[in-house]
Write a structure and sequence with these properties.
CATH class: Mainly Alpha
Radius of gyration: 14 Å
Strand content: under 5%
Structural class: mainly alpha
Order of helices and strands: HHHH
Number of strands: 0
Largest sheet: none
CATH superfamily: S15/NS1, RNA-binding
Helix content: over 70%
Number of domains: 1
CATH topology: Helix Hairpins
Distance between the termini: 30 Å
Length: about 90
């Protein structure tokens, strides 16, 4: 349940400064969001898969930390990113 190379390349091109800019926090959040969506779908049909649940919660926590970093440094960029990804704004 990983994101395909093609999808990662699309996300990198869309949110990064260059097509190979995978270290950009916006790109990392986009890729994590894609993985979270896939794992959420998996969890809908496998409710008792606690190993996947733990991994999903860890990904959500990592995405939350990256989002708080982006919000702290550039609030406009943060708002554009959560709007583009369809994420709720619940970072204090």
């Amino acid at each position: 349940m990983t994101v395909s190379k093609e999808r990662k390349a699309e996300l990198t091109a869309q949110f990064g400064n260059s097509p190979v800019d995978t270290g950009n926090p916006k790109v990392q959040v986009a890729i994590l969001s894609e993985r979270i969506k896939e794992l959420t779908e998996h969890m809908k049909s496998h409710q008792k898969d606690f190993h996947t649940r733990r991994g999903l919660l860890m990904l959500v926590g990592r995405r939350r930390r990256l989002l708080s970093y982006i919000k702290k440094n550039d609030i406009v960029e943060y708002r554009e990113l959560i709007k583009a990804l369809g994420i709720r704004d619940n970072i204090q």
